[in-house]
Amino acid sequence: STKHTNDTSGSTGGTSASSASGSSSSSSSTAPKTYKQGGTLTISNEQGQTWPCAFNPFNASNNVEANGFIYEPLIYINTLQNAKETPMLASSYQWNTDKTAVTFTIRDGVKWSDGQPLTADDVAFTFNLMKQAPATDLYTLWSGAGLTEAKASGNQVTLTFKQNAQVYFYQFANLVTIVPQHIWSTGDAAAHPDTWANANPVGSGPYTVKCTPNNMEYKANPSYWQPGKPYVTTVEYPAYLDNQPANQDLASGKAQWGSQFITGIKSFYLNKSQDNHTWSPPVLNVALVPNLDPSHKATSQLGVRQALAYAIDKAKVSAIGEDGQQPPANQSGIVTPTFDKYNDAAAISAAGFDKPDLDKAKAALQTAGYSTSNPLNLTVISVQGYTDWDASLAVIKDELKGIGINLTESSLTMQTYDDKLYKGDYDLAYVGQPAGGPTPYYELREWLHSANTAPIGQSASAGNFERYQNKEVDTLLDSYATASADDQVAIIKKIEGYMIKDVPIIPVTESVDWFQYNTKDFGGWPTSDNPYAQPAAYNYPDNEQVLLNLFYKPAQ
Amino acid sequence: MRYLLRRLGFFLLTLWAALTLNFFLPHFMPGSPINSLRAATRGKVPDAQLKQILASYGFKPDANVFSQYWDYLGNMLSGNFGVSTGGSSLGTPVSKMIGQSLPWTLGLVGITTVLAFILGSLVGTIAAWRRGGVVDSVLPSVFVVTSALPYFVVGLFLILFFTIDNTWLPGSFNYDNTIVPGLSPGFIGSVLQHALLPAATLLITSIGGWVLTMRNNMITTLAEDYIRMGRAKGLSDRKVMVNYAARNAFLPNLSGFAMSIGFVLTGAILVERIFNYPGLGYQLYNAVNSIDYPMMQALFLLFTIAVLGAILVCDLLTVWLDPRTRAKG
Amino acid sequence: MTTLLSQPAEAPAAPIRGKKRGGGVWRSFLSNRKANFGFVLFFVLLVMALFPSLFTDVDDPTAPARFMPRLPPSGDHWLGTTSLGQDVWALFVYGAREPLIIAVVAGGLATIISVFVGVSAAYLGGVADDVISFITNVVLVIPTFPLVIVLSAYSGKPTLTVMVSVLVVTGWSYGANQLRAQALSLRNRDFLESARVRGERRSYIIVFEMLPTMISLIIANFLGAALFSVLNAAGLQFLGLGDPNSDSWGTMLYWADSQSALENGAEWWAIAPALGIAALGVAFALMNYAFDEISNPALRPVRRQRGKQLAARLRPSVPAQAGPADALGGE
Amino acid sequence: MLETTTDPNALLEVRNLWVEYNTPTGSVPAVAGVDLTLAKGEFLGVVGESGCGKSTMLFGIAQLLNPPASVTAGEVWFKGQNLVALSAKSLNHLRWRDFSVVMQSAMNALNPVHTIGHQFKDAIKAHAKWSETEIRVRSAEVLELVGIDPVHLKSYPHQLSGGMRQRAMIAMALLFTPDLIVMDEPTSALDVVAQRSLMAQIKELQKQLGFAVIFVTHDMSLVSHFSDRLMVMYAGQVVELGTTRAVFDAPAHPYSKGLLDAFPSIRGEKKRLTGIPGAPPNLGRPPTGCRFHPRCPVAMDRCIVDEPELYQVGAVQARCLLHEPAAQKVEIES
Amino acid sequence: MNEPTGSELLRTVDLTRHFKIGGGFSRHNLHAVDEVNLTINRREIVALVGESGSGKSTIARLLAQVYKPTSGEIRFEGKSLGALRGRKQQLAYRGEVPMVFQDPFASLNPAYRVDHGIMRGLKLHRTELSPAERRAEAARVVEAVGLNPAAEILQRYPYELSGGQRQRIGFAQALAYRPKLILADEPVSMLDVSIRIGLLNVMADLRESEGVSFLYITHDIASARYVCDRVMVMYGGHIVEAGPTEDVLQEPKHPYTQLLLSAVPDPRAPLTVDVDTVKAEPPKVVNPPAGCRFRDRCPLAEPICHEVTPKLTELAPGHETACHVAQRAAAGVAG
Ligand SMILES: Nc1ncnc2c1ncn2[C@@H]1O[C@H](COP(=O)(O)OP(=O)(O)OP(=O)(O)O)[C@@H](O)[C@H]1O
Ligand SMILES: Nc1ncnc2c1ncn2[C@@H]1O[C@H](COP(=O)(O)OP(=O)(O)OP(=O)(O)O)[C@@H](O)[C@H]1O
Ligand SMILES: [Mg+2]
Ligand SMILES: [Mg+2]
């Protein structure tokens, strides 16, 4: 698939109005360029459901439809550009020295779409609401991150924490979106802020919305605080129930912004028009997860895990199972090219994990007492309905046969699968780590920190499903929060060493942010050269950045 | 009247049984809605928080099953279906979601089913009446074949032919998204256009059964003496066919029709899925996939009521059309 | 309550007059065009399911990447290849086995339950009948397919056994109701009373006197249940509620659907299994309808013969070919 | 063959009527060359064993055959028109006004979903433009004629007893006072007492209204007191035809004789009866020669080969070679 | 078979059978058979005649133990059937009192060859026979009812036989057990006259050759006269008249019997005057009030007929009638 270049330092994005359009390649840090408004953009992102027409940013299941379009965060943090920050509702912020309190200065002149001004009180209100109604505290700031106080004074808001809260900055600055106090402090909204539907949302974002179950129509917010923006006047967001029609509309050009997997993307989409492009940056790992608990005889042996890691041809899995659209992963656990800076490629190749090696695999398996003549039978659980996983596992199964491992896939309903995965009732599991963050730290912590695991039979829902326990890794991870930026890179690299040495999991492919775009009428798309935001429409608040950059070519 | 009372009794008992089944079936399913919610939030929200959220929406998996059951019965009877706990529709009132889909399913499936029944009965009547004609000699075979075709096979081929090989007709959705819903001719035209393929699928697969049963009933009825009597009286052919033969042959079909509503729902699920038609079938599919108990329960209830209601209506019709049932105990 | 849902017209009330008992059923079956066609179709699919290797060289059709993906049909790959690099024809051939197993096993088990439930309800009568037929009617009324979906989701792991069990659990009620109606109509038939008066035991009467006379309805039921199973199983698999690693037509369709085969130049991936399922369904439906015709001779096709009438007018008043009188023994 | 010219007194003339069932195994001639003349106001009884083609003949005459049966030869002249050749439309014209039909089982012959009155109305409306009142008056009138309370016009068939239904059928047949009523075993479903009473009623009405009746039954004794003439059928053919008395007193055909001998009497002397041995032939393959020869106690060799015609024997006609004019007369032992 | 002709074989004492009809809210009692006392002697054919629905079949089924009596008892050879204990005794009774069913088309199992019923019966009731003997015995009884060649007939399916032949198979089946009494429920009603007489002859012959008694149920009084020693007339669940055939037919004492006889057409008898139209109201047997059940149709009905149910009384030797008017007339003559 595509070769990614990564030039993190040189690129700009965000509010400084990128000049990058899909066709123009160079990025520059020259003066912001502005565009005329106009055009109707259609998003094609399979939802599987008609729109509920609810725009409660605290409703975790559908706030994608509100966040970014209507509600905005304080600061935008770009995962793809080494956590590059763009001030949004907060024009600036200041940590105290031990990083237990942060003060945001709220931007002047921001208006809610009903004309009321946005103030520091609104911001403080939003955070305090989360304390008051714990169900709205989606990122467990009060219960988990140690937030103790959110206070406004003048145009400033100070969040005070029990301890160093630097690692939570991504959540409270970037993921939390701010709601208007004058709306949320009265009526149904105040009574049930967590379940209130909020059918006619009042926000500060670039768009306002009109919703029918079949379609959401976002109209440019005339009183948006960034003058002249957004450039695209109308955004249509139809409810696609299934991939097929969503893909079809992309292929036909009816929709210009795609955010889902397209099989055979080349013939189906790219070849249909030279204006059709795709760039799906990887963000997380999909891994074969062995059960490390000693009760699982085979998979708790290093030899078996190494054999698996050596034998699997990740490139082939990527090519066949994922149609070449999810790149092969690294044994280091670092998603490349997104986090290239952290990746210790030398260590990987030194250990021989850079390419499949059947001989090494056989040798490793031998150490565990298995061989082609005494094959090892293993069952891998996966999720019913994930056909790409089924296909990937079929490839893996085929490869493992050659070294003496008979793999059986057990495709379970999501519920059964999760149940088994969390409770440790499996030998091997094919797992996509769900959560991440702007640096590899977030994902690696989930996979590896012993705080995230639980004994067999108890739920290890926090991400360490394989039950990896290593004090040194824990210490390293714990030290990350307070370390300096450079030290952080070093810490991550040390952790990679354990990934390679202990093979706690075997990353196979990298899950991506699905993105297809059409450059005929619209420019300003994020590209590999200018990755100013994660490009999928379902990613907030990144979607706002994209929306703020897009422009309608015929209007220019 | 006693007959009707007994039917009503049956109706209520079955309703209760279905309600109970509705309650227990999903509750014995493994897993919880939290998983689908996690997927919907793309892992950005911790599990503990997800649980908290679910609880705030009234989902209490740990409460006593029987007290839940009573609550449930009360809620169902008062039409309080609760809010969805499904992936991307968490917190949306179930009644609202059903309200959005119901008209589409009713319109598509309801109308087609009735249409198939009426058309099928008509064709069956004529085929049997013209016994031995060319039509009658090929009809049974043709309709045996169509009645055995799976919905998705027909749907697939229609899609292949009408939307992929040629882009003559839309193969998904209930109307063109760019049109604002309303009573405008454009919107209605779009709705009809979008309904065409799924309706054809349902029609093709379900009409055969009615043709065959009606034909068979007609043949049996035509052998009755009162048909000969009708002819002997010098009544016009049409009158004998309609008033004497079809009217009688139709009666046993009515109860069959009621029973078939259940199968029609099968069609609805598959067809709505194939054609991306946002109706109840699709909702059920989603609800099952995301372990959305409230939604599942409400849909189940709705389906059962639909079948029972159809049975009741057909009973009433039968009583109205057939004086003999009125006398029956 | 008991007779509420019994199908008044459909249950053939009489064990049928005319040539159709024992060997008769088989003979009539053989002389029925629809039955023949259905049976041949079924037989071909059966052979394919039993000996797939006769039809294709590929021995592990589901293994990915054996061939180039998305090849068009050719001499090497009659129906082309899938986007995972599998041979569609091989998948199709091997995919016949599971639907057939489902049809026969699920259809068979459901029929056995139908017979058991239906006949015992009819024979026991009274409260037992009321209870049994109430349960039957509830199962009958509750929309099957949604139930099937929920049940198979409930089971967690979509193995063949699970699929078959689910289909059996939901598939028996219709037949039970029909058989009950038939058994009820038989219950007071003179030949059963005759056996009772003869001094036979209840169990003997049910098994050896009653069941044999219901044989054509039981067969028809089996065919119906098999058809139901095939269609529903395929539907389930198509929705992704089957085992995606199994090779079965329904699963093929599911894969084809999820890989956009129709749009991606691998049409046969979808068309072949669709045709296969349709063929299997049609085979059962044809045989089933043929059984209707056999048990109700009135339904058999008739042809109007206008030409013959003229011939008859010219014929001498006694048919020429008349032989000696049919010697009916004994009188 | 009876070469008939149209008899001015005849109401109905059937000439060489053939009716065949077209079955997969070949054609079954259930009525094989029936000739029959019926005068106005005459009561003709038709008797014969089950399956000998009585009903088929009736329906052949009334043009009510259902496939696979059809008239394959012959003519049915009724009031100067050949019913066989008549178009469906003109046939419908004659129906019910000029001839009506009463069928075997009234339960099945009345449409179960309509009231008696409704069915009367159907019949009337098909042939006349009467006002609602006229229809009601006439319907009530005919019902009273057969001894049923006119309130039953509002009844459905299942609400009447068997006897009442039969009488309602007869009432319906009388709506237009036709010239001919064709009856196919109208009493067979009733018990003896009801049968007797209904027969008496039919006879009474016939006398009163003067219509002709063709009355089909398999029970010879039933018609013995009521019919003017009797026609005995065997295997699709008329084997004996004559006045009832003549046939009963001196049956000319061995089959008629056998039938009569099969009836025990409740009054006369008690003697051992024999019945007719064997079973009726399969009409698809009727015996050669005389169709009765396999069962005939007095069969001769030539009966196997030669086909008898209807010969005049005194007051009756009989299809038996014993009565062939040219042949030597042999007395039948009784 | 060596018991003297005429000695009592079976007797019923106040045999009563009611059916519950209607369900749920309305329960009614249908009095199908009410307090019937009848006797059947050895080597005797007894006719049971009466109009449709009068309870004839119900009596036969009660005797065959298909139904249980609501009250009253049946004594066979002096022993009450209620006293039969165990399957063995039950079987023995069933072997001695078999039943021949009305409808020849329905009483043979269409799934089996016709020997099935006979062989099963032999196996159950004549356990001493070896299989070969059973076959021989089956052939014997089939020939006894006049079916030849037996071996071939036995191998046919019911549909391959004519109605008359089937009916005889029914008889043969009953005969095979060496019964003492055959309950024949309208065994000839479906048959053509020409076949009917043959079967009646078979019955008469069996009485002569094997000494079997019959309860012959029929509508057809003429055929009853033809073979029967005694006649019982039923009306509305009651036996209204019983006596030697000729007595009853020559001198019917009950008005229903008279009506019945006058309705029987007889080609040989001279034409009688037409019967007046009888309002054929069926008797009330559902929750019937006391009184004579024929009273509404009876030309002679008196007030007492509406209040007191007449009992069967012997009015002439062996000739019993249940009619107030007839009883009074007889009493008047006597007194
Ligand atoms: N549909 C049919 N196909 C073939 N043969 C038939 C059909 N219907 C009747 N027959 C034959 O036609 C012959 C005459 O039948 P028909 O009904 O006229 O007899 P019937 O004299 O009226 O007898 P019954 O007294 O029993 O009413 C019978 O031998 C019968 O076998
Ligand atoms: N199983 C039953 N359940 C309810 N009622 C019954 C049952 N069997 C008979 N009856 C009723 O009992 C009465 C007598 O019936 P039965 O069959 O004995 O009459 P029958 O004299 O044999 O009449 P037929 O001459 O018509 O055979 C009838 O009114 C009948 O409806
Ligand atoms: Mg007839
Ligand atoms: Mg009876």
UniProtKB/TrEMBL annotation, chain B:
SUPFAM superfamilies reported in the protein's UniProt record: MetI-like
Taxonomic classification: Bacteria, Bacillati, Actinomycetota, Actinomycetes, Catenulisporales
Bilayer topology: Multi-pass membrane protein
Cell compartments where the protein resides: Cell membrane
Keywords recorded for this protein, A-Z: Cell membrane, Membrane, Transmembrane, Transmembrane helix, Transport
Transmembrane domains' residue ranges: 104-129, 141-164, 191-212, 254-275, 295-321
Domain ABC transmembrane type-1 as annotated: residue spans: 102-314
Native source organism of the sequence: Catenulispora yoronensis
Coiled-coil ranges per UniProt: none
Source organism superkingdom: Bacteria
UniProt key word Cytoplasm: no
Protein name: ABC transporter permease
Similarity comment text for this entry: Belongs to the binding-protein-dependent transport system permease family.
Primary residence: membrane
Pfam family, one: BPD_transp_1
TrEMBL record, chain C:
Keyword RNA-binding: no
Positions of the ABC transmembrane type-1 domain: 100-290
Membrane topology: Multi-pass membrane protein
Record family assignment: Belongs to the binding-protein-dependent transport system permease family.
Annotated source species: Catenulispora yoronensis
InterPro entries assigned to the protein according to its UniProt record, in alphabetical order: BP-dependent_transpt_permease (IPR050366), MetI-like (IPR000515), MetI-like_sf (IPR035906), OppC_N (IPR025966)
UniProt KW Metal-binding keyword: no
Entry protein name: ABC transporter permease
Subcellular location: Cell membrane
Keywords per UniProt: Cell membrane, Membrane, Transmembrane, Transmembrane helix, Transport
UniProtKB/TrEMBL annotation, chain D:
PROSITE patterns referenced in this protein's UniProt entry, alphabetically: ABC_TRANSPORTER_1, ABC_TRANSPORTER_2
Molecular-function GO terms, alphabetical: ATP binding
Keyword check for ATP-binding: yes
Transmembrane segments annotated in the record for this chain: none
InterPro entries for this protein: AAA+_ATPase (IPR003593), ABC_transporter-like_ATP-bd (IPR003439), ABC_transporter-like_CS (IPR017871), Oligopep_ABC_C (IPR013563), P-loop_NTPase (IPR027417)
Keywords: ATP-binding, Nucleotide-binding, Transport
All copies of domain ABC transporter, residue ranges: 12-260
Family annotation (PANTHER family): MALTOSE ABC TRANSPORTER, ATP-BINDING PROTEIN, OLIGOPEPTIDE/DIPEPTIDE ABC TRANSPORTER, ATPASE SUBUNIT
Name of the protein: ABC transporter ATP-binding protein
Organism for this UniProt entry: Catenulispora yoronensis
From TrEMBL, chain E:
ABC transporter domain: residues covered: 10-261
InterPro entries: AAA+_ATPase, ABC_transp_ATP-bind, ABC_transporter-like_ATP-bd, ABC_transporter-like_CS, Oligopep_ABC_C, P-loop_NTPase
Keyword ATP-binding: yes
Keywords noted in UniProt: ATP-binding, Nucleotide-binding, Transport
SUPFAM superfamilies: P-loop containing nucleoside triphosphate hydrolases
PROSITE patterns reported for this sequence: ABC_TRANSPORTER_1, ABC_TRANSPORTER_2
GO molecular function, one term: ATP binding
NCBIfam families: oligo_HPY (TIGR01727)
Protein name per UniProt: Dipeptide ABC transporter ATP-binding protein
Species of the source: Catenulispora yoronensis
Taxonomic lineage from the root: Bacteria, Bacillati, Actinomycetota, Actinomycetes, Catenulisporales
